[in-house]
Design a protein that fits this description.
The chain has helices at about 5-10, 70-85, 120-125, 130-150, 180-185, 205-210, 215-235, 245-250, 260, 270-280, 290-305, 330-335, 390-420, 535-540; strands at about 30, 30-40, 45-50, 55-65, 95-100, 105-110, 115-120, 165-170, 170-175, 315, 320, 445-455, 460-465, 465-470, 475-480, 485-490, 495-500, 505-510. The model is unreliable at about 1-15, about 185-200, about 335-345, about 345-395, about 405-435 and about 535-550 (pLDDT under 50). A 6-stranded antiparallel β-sheet has the order 1-2-3-4-6-5, with helices on one face. The protein contains 14 helices and 18 strands.
């Protein structure tokens, strides 16, 4: 069977023997000693390098200025884009340490070196995913993209090959988002172009990208919806045909139902609704931001975890998720960085409980409408009601006993008076004053603000995998509930703490990560010696292996 388009752009086809022919291997590029070639892209290469002054291994991206047209303009835009991306600090975003241009005119970016597998590879081997696993991964990706959108950075090329699943503390699967459009931004006259060269990933492109229209955060929402579709079903929504057919499908084809693509997979209707909203043709009909997408996914997670007794009914109102009122609370659905640069989040409490069954609004529907295609098999409509509080139930039972008891007492006294005659000293019914107990209003826990301070200052604080900010940071906690926070910093051991809202301020001290007893000397790979043809053939590695069982991905290559 021939390779699919996605296979050909994943980077798996690179010949590892080409690394020995690279002229930079073994040389010093500013402060970085080039140890080996990781991968090649259309406009640059990625190397494993050793930073001499800090003695750490990094991934070093070099860019070809001549491939970007005018060299002066290329370098100016490179510096601008690199400086913006270097400000991103979300735990689920690859960290950029340094960037610059050598005396020889080579533009480079130094970033953290990741060890793990790309989401592209994991999908090929393990899809379809369990729904809760897919939701947890995508929620973390939403956090990374929300921070980038706050900085007015749109990824534009979100795909499984640009997401690495690595380890972070005790997290078994921790996604890292790579390649925030540096190369694409340097040549953004058109997304699908020049001389037939395709500067995107057709399987994940939004309709506005295909038509070369302006992009915004909702462009990334579309691509993430495609990724979630593949994670849940194991198949792309529009098949694995050629690039042009896929591009036309994004423009005109209806998104298939899960049951059509994966009939053996059982998924909740609310999760299918979320994916289809992400993939609506008009970006105005999608989720307004990554924050809204994460809120909808959290609601689906609650249903799958059994926290909601009946199937959820979700709706979208002008890009904002409409949740039942009791659920529309940051302490319930979790918090994300709001995309302030592209419009504030809708205030809490404005969402009303839905009165219609879950609907799938097709492309072309005006924002704020719910022209519905009901999901097959959905139970009857009706508003979701929150179960009565135990305190309210006790009060109602107590009042019922008082009322019934008072009626029995009055009836008994009337019967006694009738049987004993008028001379019997029995109090008149009007002399009996019934005891009335006013019911107490249900106690609604208040939200308390807890200030988390850390040593060292600036540690990253997360809640349920969602990045809240760098300490000192204020966390909102519902009074009487326990919230677990994760505090981490580079060079320190991460900690988990529990807060209940009773303390206005919580100090957290992190322990430094112990240094190894001895630091290995930097590894320097000398330039390769010429070898005989017979010897080269004998030592050649099999195609598809890069010398390690652990796949290392190119942060900006085009899988």
């Amino acid at each position: 069977m021939g390779r699919t388009y996605e296979d050909m752009v994943s980077g798996d086809h690179l010949d590892p023997t080409s690394a020995s022919e690279d002229p930079l291997v073994g040389k010093l590029l500013d402060r970085y000693r080039i140890l080996g070639l990781i991968a090649r892209g259309g406009m640059g290469r990625v190397y494993r390098a050793h930073q001499e002054n800090l003695e750490r291994v990094v991934a070093l991206k070099t860019l070809d200025a001549q491939a970007g047209g005018d060299e002066d303009e290329f370098r100016q835009r490179f510096s601008l884009e690199a400086s913006l991306c270097a400000k991103l600090s979300h735990p689920n975003t690859v960290r950029i340490f340094d960037y610059g241009t050598t005396d020889e005119g080579v533009c480079y970016i130094a970033m953290e070196f990741l060890e793990g597998r790309s989401l592209h590879q994991v999908i090929k081997e393990e899809a379809p995913f369990e729904p809760l696993r897919a939701i947890r991964l995508v929620k973390q990706i939403c956090g990374s993209l929300a921070e980038a959108h706050d900085q007015q950075i749109v990824h534009r090329d979100l795909k499984p090959g640009n997401i690495i699943l690595t380890c972070h503390g005790e997290e078994g699967e921790f996604p890292k988002v790579l390649d925030f459009g540096l190369v694409k931004a340097l040549n953004q006259e058109t997304e699908v172009t020049q001389a037939g060269a395709l500067l995107g990933s057709p399987m994940y492109m939004s309709p506005e990208q295909v038509q070369n229209e302006p992009v915004d955060p909702r462009t990334d929402v579309y691509s993430l919806g495609v990724i979630l579709f593949i994670m849940l079903t194991g198949e792309p929504p529009f098949g694995r045909s050629n690039a042009m057919t896929m591009l036309m499908s994004h423009l005109t084809a209806e998104v298939p139902r899960f049951a059509e693509v994966a009939p053996d997979v059982t998924l909740p209707d609310c999760l299918e609704w979320v994916v289809r909203v992400c993939m609506r043709k008009a970006k105005e009909d999608r989720f307004a931001s990554m924050r809204e997408l994460a809120r909808a996914l959290k609601a689906c997670e609650m249903e799958l975890s059994g926290e909601v007794e009946e199937p959820l009914q979700l709706e979208l109102d002008d890009g904002y998720v409409v949740l039942p009122e009791w659920m529309d609370d940051p302490s319930v659905t979790g918090m994300l960085v709001s995309s302030a640069a592209f419009g504030p989040a809708r205030p809490s409490g404005s969402a009303l409980g839905p009165s219609e069954p879950p609907t799938l609004v097709e492309a072309g529907s005006p924002p704020g409408t719910s022209q519905a295609t009901p999901i097959p098999g959905e139970p009857g409509s009706g508003p979701q009601r929150r179960p009565a509080s135990p305190l309210v139930v006790v009060l109602l039972v107590f009042l019922g006993i008082l009322v019934v008891g008072g009626m029995v007492s009055v009836s008994t006294m009337l019967a006694v008076r009738s049987a004993s005659g008028p001379d019997r000293d029995v109090p008149e019914p009007e002399d009996v004053v019934p005891m009335v107990v006013e019911p107490e209003a249900p106690v609604v826990p208040a939200l308390r603000e807890v200030l988390v301070r850390t040593v060292p200052e600036g540690a990253q604080v997360e809640r349920e995998g969602v990045f809240l900010g760098d300490a000192p940071v204020t966390v909102r906690v519902k009074e009487g509930t326990l919230v677990t926070l994760r505090v981490s910093a580079v060079g320190y051991q991460p900690r988990e703490i529990t807060v209940d809202g009773g303390q206005p301020e919580v100090p957290v001290s992190l322990r430094e990560t112990p240094e190894p007893a001895s630091r290995p000397a930097p590894v320097v790979t000398p330039p390769p010696e010429p070898a005989d043809e017979a010897e080269s053939t004998a030592t050649e590695k099999p195609a598809g292996t890069w010398g390690s069982s652990t796949e290392v991905r190119d942060p900006w290559a085009d899988p």
